[in-house]
Write a structure and sequence with these properties.
CATH architecture of one domain: Roll
CATH topology of one domain: Urease, subunit C, domain 1
Number of strands: 25
Oligomer: single chain
Strand content: 15-25%
Helix content: 25-40%
Largest sheet: 9 strands, mixed
Structural class: alpha/beta
Radius of gyration: 26 Å
Distance between the termini: 28 Å
Shape: globular
Length: 613
């Protein structure tokens, strides 16, 4: 059966003609990303000729059920979506249609059962044999930062130091004097053995602007001389606990600052204006919707992000549901905020969580391990936050009833955090706390079972495996690297996986993450059979980690993450059934439409169609 996307407008106020009821139209579009028709007009009569509609669909090559019967007005749905529906409900994982009223799903089932809910003003969308699924959720984003990065200099795929410099030169020429240049997301692993960037590379091309551009993992950044001067960092500056100031042999600063050593520069970067925040949030929500995402966790969120989200919600412009996690050290302010409001928010903006750090990242050489790095025996990585602070803050935040999520990448960092979570749980007693370890990238085999026994969520980002797999072996050696991104082992142990992207560290595209988890292929094409292939998982397991499990990780499992009556109408329409095709083609799938709370917030448009609309 060919895939097709159909939207049907039904009116019954004109005389019946030889080819069907006047005013009834069926717009059939070919496979692939296509626009949906405009909002249906409401007919004056409630009389329906449903069999004509089914006949029109049959001619188009799409299959849907139906019945020719009168429909009580109160039973009509606002929207009905047809397709190969993966519900996420383990009791009934597959269906053919979903009916929506307002922002809520009212029925899920076969096409004939749902057809009776189509009335004169029902918006009907048919996706042929292609997949319809619960809207994707992303458990780990730097959301408003992503919106800013979309408008900033893009260094992610700069393939050489020369290209890195040229892009900054072009971007700086367009900035006002004194305006900070941030973001970047450069990746020196693309430079074939070239060293870390140096401020001398960019000082001459950025004479009017302070520059502080991050490596894509956010755990080190390059400052030009103007930015170092603004932060009052010099060759005489002492080392900073939890970070590294990289120096030349003569002691002068290279401009590279790792982890906590970045703090002095960020302390002097001015906050964006409210207008800039709002624009960044619009960009972020539109970009997320285009990737099929309906909800995110915004971690390490600046307080102004919460304010921007509240403004957008009040204005009715918010299109993404957001869970907000401010820095762990701000636990008291977050607890006071929840107390003063009397609640943690709603299905659009939920507050009440805090996000901490144990260590840095593997790419920056600051993830914390028991043994030294294979390519630098002088370091075991960094403990970014002192252990006594971690214990005190996590305990206090838990006592205040906040959800605690903490970044841990290296084996030693994960062991330490698992121990802290265990001790806090024992000290404070049973509670539905849902501790999360963000990343959990490198785990000793003996630590895997501790996630299930402690009820700890492994909040992981599968695209990182496809990225890090290019070079992780040189950091860890051939034995220790086998303990990386152990998705299969965690699932088999009974642990709950919640998947995300870590955007802007990685693309905010669940389909890329699903492909990475299922195939374990690296982005350089050098592991066609999969990097550490024994850790592959199934497509449906990956889908659950982006939907059902994320609903649980965000305390929303009773209203989101599953297509079930009474749940929020958050859906994504794909251009194919990714459970039926070749795993190697998952990343070629496209998003046709994204629905949040019963509203169409994204529809794919080809360039030709966009020009004629």
């Amino acid at each position: 059966m060919p895939d097709c996307l159909i939207e049907v407008s039904v009116h019954s106020d004109a005389k019946r003609g030889e080819s069907g009821p006047a005013g009834r139209t069926a717009t059939v579009r070919p496979p692939g990303p296509t626009p949906l028709a405009s909002r249906l007009e409401s007919g004056r009569s409630r009389r329906r000729a449903w069999l004509w509609f089914v006949g029109a669909i049959a001619v188009s090559g799409c299959s849907m059920g139906g019945a020719d019967r009168e429909l009580p007005p109160e039973s009509a749905a606002d929207m009905v979506v047809y397709g190969r529906v993966w519900t996420g409900d383990s009791a009934a994982p597959w269906a053919q249609a979903v009916a929506i009223s307002g922002d809520t799903i009212v029925a899920v089932g076969d096409s004939a059962a749902i057809a009776v809910r189509v009335g004169d003003s029902t918006r009907v969308i048919a996706n042929g044999g292609a997949m319809v699924a619960p809207g994707f959720m992303d458990a780990h984003t730097h959301f408003i930062d992503g919106g800013f990065q979309l408008a900033s200099v893009d260094l992610r795929d700069a393939a050489s130091p020369q290209e890195f410099i040229a892009r900054l030169k072009t971007y700086a020429a367009q900035r006002k004097p004194g305006e900070w240049i941030l973001g970047g997301d450069w990746d020196h692993e693309r430079w074939a053995g070239a060293p870390l960037p140096h401020r001398s590379w960019i000082d001459s091309v950025t004479p009017r602007n302070p520059v502080f551009v991050e490596r894509l993992d956010g755990h080190m950044a390059l400052a030009n001389t103007a930015a170092l001067r603004a932060a009052r960092l010099t060759a005489q500056s002492p080392e900073i606990a939890g970070g590294t100031i990289v120096r030349d042999p003569d002691g002068s600063l290279t401009g590279i600052l790792k982890d906590e050593a970045q703090t002095p520069v960020y302390a002097v970067v001015p906050n964006p204006s409210a207008e800039q925040q709002d624009s960044a949030l619009v960009r972020a929500t539109e970009w997320a919707a285009s990737k099929g995402i309906v909800a995110v966790s915004a971690v390490s969120a600046p307080w102004y992000e919460l304010a921007a989200l509240e403004r957008a919600k009040k204005a009715g412009t918010l299109r993404t549901r957001v869970n907000v996690y401010v820095p762990l050290g701000d636990w008291r302010a977050m607890a006071d905020t929840v107390r003063s409001r009397g609640n943690t928010g709603d299905d659009w903006v939920r507050i009440g969580g805090v996000k901490g750090y144990v260590d840095g990242s593997l790419g920056s050489g600051t993830a914390l391990f028991f043994d030294p790095y294979a390519d630098d025996a002088s370091t075991f990585g960094l403990l970014v936050t002192p252990e006594d602070s971690l214990r005190r803050w996590i305990g206090a935040a838990d006592s205040a009833g906040l959800q605690v999520v903490v970044h841990a990448i290296g084996e030693r960092a994960n062991d330490l955090l698992l121990g802290i979570f265990d001790s806090v749980t024992k000290a404070h007693g049973a509670r539905d706390r849902r501790f999360r370890i963000e990343h959990a990238q490198h785990l000793r085999p003996q630590d895997i079972a501790r996630f299930q026994t402690g009820g700890i969520i492994a909040s992981m980002q599968p695209y990182h495996a496809a990225d890090d797999g290019r070079w992780a072996g040189k950091r860890l050696g051939p034995v220790r690297v086998k303990n990386s991104y152990v998705f299969r082992s965690l699932i088999d142990s009974g642990a709950r996986l919640a998947f995300g992207s870590d955007w802007t560290v990685a693309p905010i595209e669940p389909l890329l993450g699903i492909a990475a988890a299922v195939t374990r292929r690296t982005i350089d094409g050098n592991n066609p059979g999969g990097w550490i292939p024994e850790q592959k998982i199934s497509v449906e397991e990956a889908l659950r980690a982006y939907t059902v499990n994320n609903g649980y990780a965000m305390f929303a499992e009773r209203s989101r993450g599953v297509l079930r009556p009474g749940y929020k109408a958050d859906l994504v329409l794909l251009d194919r059934d990714i459970t039926a095709g070749r795993a190697e083609e998952i990343d070629r799938a496209a998003i046709r439409a994204t629905i949040v709370g019963g509203r169409l917030v994204y529809e794919a448009v080809t360039p030709t169609e966009a020009a004629t609309r």
